[in-house]
Fold this sequence. Notes:
The complex is a heterodimer of chains A (490) and B (103).
Chain A: H1 8-16, H2 22-40, E1 43-46, H3 48-64, E2 75-79, H4 106-113, E3 117-122, H5 156-163, E4 170-174, H6 180-186, E5 189-192, E6 212-217, H7 220-230, H8 248-254, E7 262-266, H9 276-291, E8 295-299, H10 307-322, H11 341-352, H12 355-368, H13 374-397, E9 400-404, H14 420-425, H15 431-436, E10 440-448, E11 451-458, H16 464-477
Parallel strand pairs in A: 2-3, 2-4, 7-8, 7-9
Antiparallel strand pairs in A: 1-3, 4-6, 5-6, 5-10, 9-11, 10-11
Chain B: H1 11-20, H2 27-44, H3 79-83, E1 89-90, E2 93-94
Antiparallel strand pairs in B: 1-2
Amino acid sequence: MHLHELSIQETHELLSSRKISAEELTRAYLERIHRLDPQIRSYVTVADEPALGQARDADQRLKTDEGLTPLTGIPYSAKDSISTRGLNTTCSSKILENYKPFYNATAIRKLNSTNSVLLGKNNMDEFGMGSSTENSGFFTTRNPWNFDHVPGGSSGGSAAAVAAGLAPFALGEDTGGSVRMPASFCGITGLKTTYGRVSRYGLIPLVSSFDTIGPMAHSAYDVSLVLEAIAGHDPKDSTSRLEPVQNYSETLKKTEDLRGLRIGIPKEYFVQGLDAEVDASLRAAIKQIESLGAEVAEVSLPHTQYAIPVYYLILFAEASSNLAKYDGIRFGLSERNAESLMDVYLKTREAGFGAETKRRIMLGTFALSAGYYDAYYLKAQKVRALIRQDFEKAFESCDALITPVSPTTAFRIGEKISNPLDMYLSDVFVVAVNLAGIPALSIPCGIANGLPIGMQIIGPHLSEETLLRIGHMYQSQTNWHMQHPACWND
Amino acid sequence: MSEKQELQIDEKLVKEIASLARLDLTNEETEMFVSQFRDILDYVSILNEVDTENVAPAYLSSANKSVTREDEIEESMPTKEFLANAPQSKDDYVVIPRVHMEQ
């Protein structure tokens, strides 16, 4: 048995009984990263020395046996949009290539306080704009299941790292499916948290009203351990939720069936364009969940078809505003071979942003400009209200909804990159959740042609516990989450 | 989108937007954006089908109402560390190119 094959709980037991040290564990992961990641390319930065330092600190704490948590000494990686003090945080953009934050994101600070070990930072679509990591300003990450296919995006590096055994868990970030879609494409478990459940402090923003940090790991149980560690109110994020964090993992241990739960199947998500294999896997998974005692009924989310245009219009607008700060003055890339201040702005932004980022800044600037605001941005915000109402109505008669994560398995590298609209449409099942600010869990439920299929479990605000219970019970009866790509054994 | 009939997506419009967005696009990029903008704006126009006459916009995702806090003095951000990321700095200041040109 190799260390990367263990669950977080199993690894914790080895650490706390001192059968292995956190330093040995960290060295084993770093060795795998240096051996396998040159092909997969899931990391932008590997933090060898800082990680070993953190591991030695964890070993000190493990010796004292005091204040240990299930994550003490456990290595992890983080999407490169999450600020890490003194360690490059690039959002996979050339404009932030050498940027070193002087503070930690709250989620990182919380993991530090329990002596988890940060292995490095994961590749992503630039600033989170994309569904494949092909829009990274540096390089494309490969799907560990098939190197010719994309890992999904935008947290594609984080998903690939976990799937290939290059980190036992990762912090991803979900603006419009960016945790769930890559989790599905790479065959791992990923949670899009309720908006505000995890502090956004130190998360470099893409769409401030959609962005959420969420755990990515091999099981709902491992995800629950990470969520407990990072969730909670933060005075530094006024949108973070005040409600106390539940003891998710304890609940999972006590769950024996799904009796009394009502599951809705939104008919608008099982339509033309859904791959036959995805459809069949989802239907089998729903049967399995029904056999655990849940009641299943069809529901309707009538405004589903408008989720993509609403999502993208709001994204264009908010992203173009959020990206205005990259101007070559205070941090990041700066083209100083310029005649005037304006020239610095123009040259820096032209050189620093990739094609998709420019496209979205342009579309957002247009949608917010005088004369077009009402027709695009305001209209989108109104339809967003209707999409939210669809969910509220559905949750009057059910506790959770089950849908596919993506209509297809991972597509080929290069297949959609030249057609942006086609790429946007691959997010069809994931973006509505962000419009409503509600949580959703992505878990593996099948394999077709050697590529994983994912199931999405959606719930009302702060229903993480319910979603994790459903995921955990499903995973206690099935072994899709225990299937691994060939490189897992390398 | 009600302006759709009058909306001409051409190089002139794309260049105007680029100037507002502070992007110095190449001619190639400008040309590409003209055709992609047409496709994307045409696609989002399906929102016109939705009756939103009496719908209030959603805007916020947060459940928290207006959040205030005590105005307490805290340690400021460390100037030296902050400036370590600046492309150019002098003493405790960020250096930028001249804004006002001499006559």
